[in-house]
Amino acid sequence: MSFDSLGLAAPLLKAIADAGYTSPTPIQAQAIPAVLKGGDLMAGAQTGTGKTAGFTLPMLHRLQAGQRTLDKRGRPAIRALVLTPTRELAAQVEESVQTYGKYLPQLKSMVMFGGVGMQPQINKLRDGVDILVATPGRLLDHAGLGNLDLSKIEILVLDEADRMLDMGFIHDIKKVLALLPAQKQTLLFSATFSDDIKNLADRLLNQPALIEVARRNQTNDQIAQKVHPVGRERKKELLVHLIKSGDWHQVLVFTRMKHGANRLTDYLNDQGISAMAIHGNKSQGARTKALADFKSGDLTCLVATDIAARGIDIDQLPHVVNFELPNVPEDYVHRIGRTGRAGAQGEAVSLVCVDENGFLRDIEKLIKREIPKAIVPGFAPDPNEKAEPIVLGRTVLNPNGSRGRNPNPPQHAGRGGRPGGGGGGNRGGSRDGGRSNNGGGGGKPQAHAGHGGAKPAGSHTGHGGARTAPRPQGQPSRDGGAPRHTNGPRLTQPKR
Ligand code: AMP
């Protein structure tokens, strides 16, 4: 199939050709015609499937075919709103809007997120914006100050809706919805379909077209997955060995915790491997720079936590390393989705110590395949090493799956959640799901065992278990089902 048959306007086809795309990805082939028809859409697609172009291209088409209107204050109205969970994703979506809309100079776009000054955003709004890509918190801040009018929105996109709910944005989303007109086209993209997502879709979408590509929790066949069993204390050395012996130049490394990411970054730099950490405690400037250096090839290693890595879009990323396995199995799928994107080959390597065997079993159950295991010569784990409890903030997850209290609880909680789940400060940007404690890294008595997120007692071997630590309100588990038909009543006045 070619893009030409999808009904997109010539300036869009020209931009697609410039981007070097020859044929639409499966999500694009289905989503573009559905969105062009004007109805609502619920799409199950992970990053890496081409979903951004899947909604951006038809959105641009519809906007260019329609009329610019004026808002209540007589300014050119904002006509499309894309909500994303993180700053990085917002920035990347808006970059896509610019890329695909480059021959439609009449359509202006803007990205808006927290952690940066408001005044430049206010100035940009004044200049007139057709397409606004925003994180919910900063959007509400501007709305509260009367800086923008969303009453003329024609198209609303909720991108990575599951992650927005995971991050406790449901109340913010409801507040945003209350600012939008009842009559609009709504597109909901989500990698997973928890009951919360289904509820949101039932209330928000009107007889949506349902599209699901690459069934959720399926990993991409282009990605070679490997587990290297290794002693808990030797992970760092093994990582350095893999990078140096494999002559790796662009490696995305995942840790569970911010502190673990920082410590590992220091170690890698000490070993002569250029590395930077990207997580919610970093300033927006530091994160933008780390990502830019990594993309340009100046930086060998980007060490990231799960939430911060959402939306990182780097073509053909050759290596992803799970320095620590995620305790939420679905995060494994998200993590390794960073490589092998859009048809490119990639390699995802997990360094697994004895403490993490339960996590590995959960992941293999979820992806319905066993990941090949290979011991790297010289790094065989000590067969006598015993599994130790994993510290989850104030809770300890024992090797048998039971939970207890951390005898040395962290002195302060990180930005893991928002008590009450609603509009506290600290809005609008990336957040890390875990708590600040001694995480990752391996080595110090407390250090190896600091792992983000908790699962409810007894769920250690089950997949899709709820995370209690990083989810502010004990978000429910994600289920394995496909989206069900959602033709419930349109939500016009969401409850606040
Ligand atoms: P996304 O899932 O939207 O994050 O996109 C993943 C990557 O696929 C992005 O880097 C896009 O540039 C790339 N991409 C999107 N559509 C196509 C296409 N039709 N052909 C080749 N690459 C694509």
Structure, described:
This protein is an alpha/beta fold. 31% of the residues lie in helices and 15% in strands. The protein is built from 15 helices and 18 strands. Helix 2 (26-37) packs parallel to helix 3 and helix 3 packs across helix 4 (87-100). The termini are far apart. The site of adenosine monophosphate (AMP) has 15 residues, from helix 3. Residues 21, 24-25, 28, 47-53, 313, 315, 341-342 line the site of adenosine monophosphate.
Estimate what percentage of residues fall within beta strands.
5-15%
Count the E strands: 18
Structural class from helices and strands? alpha/beta
Q: Strand order within the widest sheet?
A: 3-4-2-5-6-1-8
What Rg, in angstroms, do the CA atoms define?
22 Å
State the helicity in percent bands. 25-40%
Ligands (ions, cofactors included): adenosine monophosphate
Estimate the mean pLDDT confidence. 78
How far the N terminus sits from the C terminus, by CA atoms, comes to 45 Å
Number of helices: 15
Largest sheet: 7 strands, parallel
Overall 3D shape:
globular
Low-confidence runs: 412-496
Task: Give the SSE layout.
Blueprint: H1 10-19, H2 26-37, E1 41-44, H3 51-65, E2 80-83, H4 87-100, E3 109-112, H5 119-127, E4 131-134, H6 136-144, E5 155-158, H7 161-166, H8 170-178, E6 185-190, E7 193-194, H9 195-204, E8 209-212, E9 223-229, H10 235-245, E10 251-254, H11 258-270, E11 275-278, H12 284-296, E12 301-304, H13 306-309, E13 319-322, H14 329-336, E14 346-352, H15 357-367, E15 390-392, E16 395-397, E17 403-405, E18 478-479
Parallel strand pairs: 1-6, 1-8, 2-4, 2-5, 3-4, 5-6, 9-14, 10-12, 10-13, 11-12, 13-14
Antiparallel strand pairs: 7-18, 15-16, 16-17
The structure holds adenosine monophosphate.
